[in-house]
Structures are given as C-alpha cells and as structure tokens.
UniProtKB/TrEMBL annotation, chain A:
Keyword Translocase: no
Major localization listed first in the record, in broad terms: membrane
GO terms, molecular function: ABC-type oligopeptide transporter activity; ATP binding; ATP hydrolysis activity
CDD domains (alphabetical): ABC_6TM_exporters (cd07346)
Localisation per UniProt entry: Cell membrane
Protein's name according to its UniProt entry: Multidrug ABC transporter ATP-binding protein
Family matches, as PANTHER family: ATP-BINDING CASSETTE SUB-FAMILY B MEMBER 10, MITOCHONDRIAL, ATP-DEPENDENT PERMEASE MDL1, MITOCHONDRIAL
Membrane topology: Multi-pass membrane protein
Species for this entry: Streptomyces caeruleatus
From TrEMBL, chain B:
Subcellular location(s) of the protein: Cell membrane
Xref: PROSITE patterns: ABC_TM1F (PS50929), ABC_TRANSPORTER_1 (PS00211), ABC_TRANSPORTER_2 (PS50893)
Domain (ABC transmembrane type-1): residue spans on this chain: 39-314
Protein name per its UniProtKB record: Multidrug ABC transporter permease
Organism from which the protein derives: Streptomyces caeruleatus
Cellular component, GO, one term: plasma membrane
Amino acid sequence: MSALPVATSREVRSQARRLMRQHPRELAFSLSLHVLATLAGLVAPQLLGHLVQEADGAVDDVTSIALVICAAVVAQATLTRFAILASLKLGEKVLARLREEFVGRVLTLPMSTVEKAGSGELITRTTRDIDVLAHTVQMAVPDSLVAFATVALTLGAIVLTAPVLILPCLIAVPVLWLSTRWYLRRARAGYLRANAAYAQLTGGLGETVDGARTVDAFGLADSRFARVNKDIAESYEAERRTLYLRSVYLPIADTGYMLPVAGTLLIGGLLYLGGHVSLAAVTTVTLYVQQLIGPVDRLLYWMDELQVGGASFARILGVEAVSETSGDGRPGAVEESGQGIVVSGVRHAYREGTDVLTDVNLKVEPGERLAIVGPSGAGKSTLGRLLAGVQPPSGGTITVGGKPLAQLPLSERRKLVMLVTQEHHVFRGTLRDNLLIARPRARDEALEEALRVVDAWQWAEELGLDTEVGSGATALAPGQAQQLALARLVLADPRTVVLDEATSLLDPRAARHLERALAQVLEGRTVIAIAHRLHTAHDADRVVVMEDGQVTEAGRHDELLGQGGPYARLWHSWHAGKAAPAD
Amino acid sequence: MHHFPEPDPGRPDLRSPQRYLLWLATRHPAAASLAVVHGVLCTLAQALVPYAVGQAVDQGLVDQDKQALVLWSGVVMGLGVVQAITGTLRDRCSLTNRFGAAFRTMQLVTRKAAGLGAELPRRASAGSVVSVGATDITRIGAALESTARGGGAVVSIVVVAVLMLTLSWQLGLVALLGVPLIAWGVARLMRLLHGHQQNLRQEQGALTDLSVDIIEGLRVLRGIGGEEIFAGRYRERSQRVRHEGVRVATVEASVVAGRLLFPGLLVTAIVWLGAHFVATGRMSAGALIAFYGYAVFLAEQLRRATTMVDQLTRAVVSCRRVVDLLLLERALTSGDRDPAELSARADLSDPASGLRITPGRLTAVACASAGDAHALADRVGRYEDSGAAYNGVPLSAYPLAAVRRKIMVVDHEARLFSGELGAELSSGPGTAAADLDTALDVASANDIVEALPDGLSQEISGSREFSGGQQQRLLLARALAHDPDVLVLVEPTSALDAHTEARVAARLARHRDGRSTVVFTTSPMVLDQADHVVYVEDGRVAAEGSHGELLRDARYRSVVTREVSVS
C-alpha cells in the first residue's frame, strides 16, 4: 500500500465535473464543432446510396451529387480541424492548471508525509501519473467523446434513413458488450503485470551494469545470467497471459464488428426484396455500418485508457487530500526578544510504536553554540529536524520565545530557524539560481561574500555564477554542494541555525576551517551543530550527548571529559593511538 | 508455443547489424513463416470484404436474387470470421518472434556485461548498455512482429490492385496513382508533426526534470525556504509546455484534417467517375461500392507497409548498438598457470609502489591521496595489468577467475543487488550461510537487518534503499561472509560514526586474525587496530611500522590525525 492517499472515485468524478464546469463555453464550442463535422461525414454514404438506386439516372445528376459529396468532404475536414484544435487547446489549458496545482500542493506537503511515502512515490506521481493524465486529457477524453458522438449520430442517421435497419446493428451490442466487459475486467491487471515484469527485466540489466565491479569481484556472472532468465520467464508468462486475453477477446470483437455489416446486407436486402425499404436505404446503411467499425473500436480501446487515466487522476488528487488536512498553522508574531528554544518532554516516532526520541528536555540559550553528538541511530538528526520545525514532535512541545514552533507559519519559522543537513542536492539551474533561493533579490556582491565565507569563492569564480549546474549540467562535488548549502544559509541569515553533519563531505581540515569562518559570520546567532566528528564538539559552548533517543550528558567539553562518562569514552576512542592529547 | 527463457541464447552473427537482425529473425523459422502466412490471409480476407459487399449489391439487390443475397451476405460474414481467426493466429506466432528476439538479445547483453565485469564502465557508457534493455529490445521485437502485418499488407496491396484493374482499369488507375500520392503527402505532413512533437517532448522533459528536481530537493527547500520561487519556476515552465502544446495542436489538427480531406477527395473523384460509368452502363453499381471500400482499405495497408519499413530501419540502428556491445572483449587476459599455486602462504607484492603484504596479518595502508588507494587496490586485486605478484609470480600468469577467488577487493563501487537480503549477502560461489551471522556481527550490521520487517528474508531493491553508513556495513558483511584468503577493503568505514567505527575496527581485526586483510584507510581508529601500517605518498611506500611508531612522522600524522589544536 502506498503511504500517500488516493482519491475515491466519487472525488474523481466530482473533480472531473468541476473541470468541465470551469470552461463551459470552450467545451460547448468544441463539442458542437465535432458534431457538425460528424454530420458532414454522414453525407457521402447517403448520396452514394442514391447513386446506386438511380444507377441509370441522368449524368448531370451524377455531377451535382459528386459536387455535394465534395463539398461535404471539404466541410468535414475544415470543421474537424477547428474542432480538434479547440479541444486540444482546452486540454492543454486544463492540463497546465492541473499540474501546476499539483506541484504547488507537493511543495506544501508536510515533511513527515513526504518521508513516509518516500520521494520515489512522489516522483512517480509527478512524472508517470502526470504523463498518463496528459495522455488522457489530450487524447483519450476528446477522442472518445468524438467517437461516442460519431457512433450516436451515425446510429441516428441510420434511424432517419430506415428505422427498421437499426435492428441488425443491435445484434452486435450484446456480443461486444459482454466480451468487452470480460476483457476489461482482466486486462488492467494483465498489462500492469506485464509492465512490471518488463521493468524488472530492464532493472536487472541496469543492476548488472551498475554493479559490474561487484559481479567481477564475487564471480557473479552466472548468477546474473540466472537472474535475467528468471526475469524473462516472468515477463514471458505475463505476456502470454495478455496474449490469452487478446486471443479470446479480439476474435469475438472482430466478428462482432462484421455481424452488423453482413446482417444489414442480408436483412436489409430481404426487406428490400419484400418491398419494405428502398435500395438506396440498404446501400447507405451498409456503408454507415462499415463506417461505424472505426469509432466503435476506438471507443472500446479508450475505455481501458480512461480507466488508467482515472487511476492516475485519483493519485494526483490524493496529494491534495494530505496537504489540506494538515495545515501549517496560524500566523502569529514572535517577539524579537525571544528567550531561546525550549524542548520539554519531547518524544517522537516515525512509525507507530517505535519511538526514536523518548522524553527529551533541553534549553538552548540565544546566541549559544551547541553541539549534539552520539552514536548513529541515537536520534540526533530527528532532534535537529524537530528543533528546525521541519516537522512537529509526536509528543511534548518545542517553543521559541514561548510560542510553539509547530504552530508558526512557514515563512515566520524560516526567519527564526533554518536547517542545513548533509543532503547535498544541487538544483538544476545556474549557480546564481542556487543561491538566490535563500534571498531572491540578493546582488552579486552579496553572493560573492557568502561564497567567500564558506571557502567556495575560488571555484565558484572559476566556474562563473552563470554556469548551469545540477543533474544533467556541470556536476558539483558533494563537498562543493555542501558549501553552496551553507552559502545559502549565510545569505538567509536566520536567528537560529541547525547544522546536521553539514560539513561531513568536506575533508576534516577544510571542514574545521569552514566551521570556524561560519561561526564568525553567525556571531550572536544560535548554532546547533550535529556531528560525528568531535572537533565540532570541542569548539562548542556546550555539548549534548545523545544515546538511545535520550540526552544522557550535557555540559562543556572540559567538564564532560573530567566526568569520564560516555563523552569522555568517545573522545578517547576517537583519539585512540594518538601520541598525546592536544589539550 | 515456444518456451522462454532458452537455456542458451546461441552464437549470434555479429558481422553486421543486418546479419544480427536476420539471425534473430531465423531463430524460430516455423513461427516466423506461419506469422507471415496468417498475416497475408488476414489482410486478404479484409481486402475481399468490399468485393463481397459489391457482389451482394449487384447480384442480390440490383438483380433481385434472394439466393445470391444470402450467399454473398454469408461470404461477408465468413470473411469477417476468417479475418478474426487468422489475425489472432498471426499475433500468437508473432509473440514468439517478438519476445524470442528481445529475450535472446537481453540474455546476450547481460552475459556480455557480466563477463566484462569491472572493465565495463571503461569500455561502454552505462547509459548505452541500459538503453539496450529500455528501448532497443522493444524496437527489435516490434520490428520482427511488424513483418507479419507488413507482409500481409504488401501482398494485399498487389491483390487489390489486380482486382481493381480487372473491375475497371480507368478507375483502378486513378486509385493506384491517387493512393500512393496521398500516402506520400500524409507521410510528409506526419514528418512535419513529428518535428514539432519533438520540441514539445523536449519541453515536457524539461518540465518533468524540474518537478523531479523539486521533489529530490524538497528536504533542502524545507530547511531553508524557496518553495514559492520553485512554484513560480514550475508555473513558468508549465505555461511554456502549454504554448508549445498548442503549437503542436495547430499542426496536428491540420494533419488530421488532411488525412480526412485527401482520401475524401480521391473517393469523391472515384465516385464521380464511377457513377458516370454506372450511368452509362460501363460498370455495375456494386463495383462502385467496392471501389469506395478499396480506396479506404488501400490507404490503411500502405500505412502498414511503410510502418514496417520504418520499424525495420530503426531496428537496424538498435542492432548496431547491440552488436557493438557484443563485440567487446575483456582486455585483461587470463593466464594458464596452475591456480593451486595460489593456495601457498606467500607475500602479495606491488613492485610499482614497493607495497608488500605479508600473509595472515591485518595491513593498513594510509595513502596521502585517495587516488593512490584506488590505483593500488586495482593493482593488487588485478583489476589492471601491472607487475603485482603473488609469491613472486605475476598475477597475470594465473587464470583471472582464480585470482578473483583468492583476492577480493571491496571499494566504493561495490553494490548490493535486488532480491532477498540474505541471499544477496551470501551470493556467489563459496559462501557458507552460517558465516553470515558472524559476518553481520563483525560489521555491526545486525541492527540494520533487525530493523527490516522480514529480517534476512526481506526483499530489497538494491543498495539505494540504505543510508551510506548502512550500505558500508552490509557490503563489509557480505565480503566477510565470503571469507576470501586476501581481503582488500578501500575506506570501509568512511561513512560510519565514531562509535560504530571503533567497534567495527576492533571486531574486524579479531575476526580476520590469521588471514590476510588489507585496509586502505586514513581513520586512526582502524589504523590503530592494524598489525602493520604502511604510509604511501606520491604512489610509493614512504614509511612502515605500527600506527604508534608512524605517528612520529609529521607527514603521516597530518594525513591520519584530525588534529585538534588549542584555538
């Protein structure tokens, strides 16, 4: 099951209706053009029927009839052009709106939801589901509407030509209805399985390539060959399943298409021989019935696509449900005089029942430099995220200047506290774009100053602020990406900074130098640094040691060393083998 | 029907892409020829429907003959049934051809990629190999499948042409000249459309990239802000896609109109001429109806025939990529010296750097530059040809597989494969399953396994499921479970926190006691546990001794200690 919700089919239907109601005029315009185009397409068989009946009629008649057919063809083509253009334009408009709303919602999703779902799930929704929806809106919806209109109008034309000749068409209805229902009920699962099996097959080769060295080191060539064979077996099995479904459905459907043609000829012919209908009517209706095969086929084909599109639409709307149910709180100012951050009785669990933090109490004074250390899995990063208000704690409170952090609106919170983690994502765009995120109207001088603080000006100047970076463009080293993140921090200049392993990707000496420079710039700001390198702790005003989701020790570096507790042990093991302690 | 996978994909003909395609096409001769036969029968049945309808009108209706009417209506229905059945049989045979070619190619490429091993990244770009799986096998398969429909189309075009010319050579000529002309015109229009669509796809791709970028950077944005800026950027891009989409729509609408207009005009011309002939008694009414049907039918078959040519051309391009890849051969040669000699306890040496690894000890190598560590590991593990030798005999003298079994190198390029975690950790020949628990314990990786709902039976999707530190511990556990005579580890603890690093270093030393272990590292915690430490600078051994002894060397100290000076 996915961690992100999916909209119910009722919501999907009501949203689809809302979209239609939003553009009543465009919709009516494009639909009426389609109807007119279809009507023009019904002229030729009608006149052809006449020609057959009046086989020995005057030649003049023939020419004028041909001219009318010609005019009808031209009219049909012209009307179709404008009808398609109108519906595609409308589709593009609706689609742009849907995806913009969707990404807007993604950007306001609570972080906890994003993490629970995993970015993979969100990426699937933004890429695959938006693509499927695009296909549905641009192709499936208009074309199935057109096909439906064509079928309805053609049937109408048959009734007008000779009401009794509608009967042979009806023979096909139960055949097509039952077989299509049988097929559609099974097809979805079948094709999904086939696609999944194919993805598995492709993924297997990707792994072999990515892990080529491992294959070599462990002698896994045979096991990779066995893996591709296993994937092939599954893929083939899945393909055979869909082939079976088609082998049953398509012959029945194809026969179903031909039934009305033969039926009209036979029944219509017998009726004509009995003098109940005209020869023209039989001929016209036979041609009409043949013309019906195309649109009926398309209509049935799109049924499946529409289902798939509906499922994607439901997943896209599902994201809305989350962002609406968890708002970011009401606005409210925090006094400039803030009394620091107070953490009381905080516990936190990502998954129900497994607490990562249990009863954490901590007070951070304004302007204090605090270091949080401890083994991995102790809950350091979680505490950092809670301190930055990235997500509210499961229990207990975190207040800034007396106000609960979680209730502050996002923009307000950002001025108070910012978080930089070891995550080193470089956004696609220029180097300048990457910095302006923090302060949109900053001038180049300010950018240069920020880059200098983080020791990044040298390479940044060489590269140039206008160089495109990020995936697909100039790649930055992980350490450089961290410097960028810290430069953004300098530009944004919040009152409190949480650094979670923010220099872990730089080499130790460079990290230390950068941290010192940063400390100078952030003079007077509260700095909370989470680190596994202990020099950070050594430089801090106060060290907090965390173990198993709790604060086990807190105090100045020297004090803790003197106490001989966990911190002292950690410090000594870190300096294991060193000739003499430096201090 | 045939069964896949085949145990052995066979020896492909790699002399040219065309020959490779032909080789694939002739792997299942029975299925391939049956597919074409059914394809021809199916289209022929379709082609004869207008004729039968025409006969029903002429002989049944115009001549008022009830028997003829019943007969020809029956023929129409019969043709429908034949078409339905042969179409299905064609598709069934095509499946064997299509997937036979795709699966066979996949087997060959996988075998080649696995065989090239560590050389693969240097010899071919990852993207080009992966795209074989993602697109090329689909193209090759689709092209072989299209031969059945395309073959049917070609035959039916000829048959219909003959039929038309016998019914009325004048009308037949009009149709035979007009239809290809229209097909050519429509193809031109389509090409125009494809050009525009390519621009649209590029814009769409850029928009998708932007949304992926936003999601991947969402945590960063959450920490520091900038959501509104990105929402704005996305809106701007999205509107660009919309405008490009409208431009494509304008062309597309005209193409659709053209596809209606040109055949429509041709049909009108045929009807006008035909009606004249009918009026003057030179042709029957039914024949006119048949012509009407043929004009429509021919246009469709021409499209199919051109599609086949188009797909075959693309398939040749895809085959070229496959053939290029399959022609790659390993550069590292395999010697023929008796691998049994490798089981002697002896020194492993690298003359280029002066590194000498004595058996049974934990040797730590501290390199001033990370590049040296990788180059050295590549040499002593024979991932590159060099003078590296075991017991004085160059490694290149032994079979490559034997060297790999003897010396295992684990570096930052090591990966976990998807599958059951326990099986992946003990994968490869020569791993005793019981050792896995011990190995997990040594690597401090127990907690990772315990955190998984299904423990060792958990299905994992590869390395990326785990954090950097977790990956390192799991990869170390896998190497330890494999228990090679010589284990070479490159920076195995760089992503671990101090606590865990100290624990892993101590346990590693104890666990590997008596066997040769080489660790390239600059971590004082690991160096302190080593029996012997080598310091390498500028690609040469600069000093040797214990960690404590070497700390007196200022160069070594500056590399390995994260010195804390009083500020």
